[in-house]
């Protein structure tokens, strides 16, 4: 394991843009009155506007290329759901759960993801802009070559997320666990890691340029950083 650091602990105050770091712009969602989703299954390239998907089982359904505008997905099951190239705009995903959800090359803009329980989500090549992921646990999130701008991970647990080759700009980790993260080949700009209660970098320590960490995190990461540089520390 390349490096591990712990922050100040859950509940630490985090002000946007603290100490000169530009803060992420968060979505300001005001959903209109929603109509209940009538079922019948998702359709590729479908158009879903102002709908509430409540406790819907969308397992193995194909909504590739579909557009979701001003929608709320609450308690939906997303096992193997195919949403490749889908666009989720001005929408809320509350307590989604599932394994193997396919969001590859999807677009999420002005979206809140709340209390997710997801595993093996494929979001490589996706574009996330003004997105908040709050609470819950996501295992093995694949964000390789994705573009994240103004994204906040808050109060959640991320186990072995893969940011390989991704571009992260104004991304904040607030009171969350980042365990076994792979940053290989990633590009970071104004990424604030100081609020991570656990910071564990499994690969790509050399890509931390453009990120901000705390003094305590730096001390914890020092052995791994020294090893990365081939630096021997004795005495």
TrEMBL record:
<protein>
    <submittedName>
        <fullName>Pentapeptide repeat-containing protein</fullName>
    </submittedName>
</protein>
<feature type="region of interest" description="Disordered">
    <location>
        <begin position="1"/>
        <end position="46"/>
    </location>
</feature>
<keyword id="KW-0677">Repeat</keyword>
<dbReference type="Pfam" id="PF13599">
    <property type="entry name" value="Pentapeptide_4"/>
</dbReference>
<dbReference type="InterPro" id="IPR001646">
    <property type="entry name" value="5peptide_repeat"/>
</dbReference>
<feature type="compositionally biased region" description="Gly residues">
    <location>
        <begin position="1"/>
        <end position="20"/>
    </location>
</feature>
<dbReference type="Pfam" id="PF00805">
    <property type="entry name" value="Pentapeptide"/>
</dbReference>
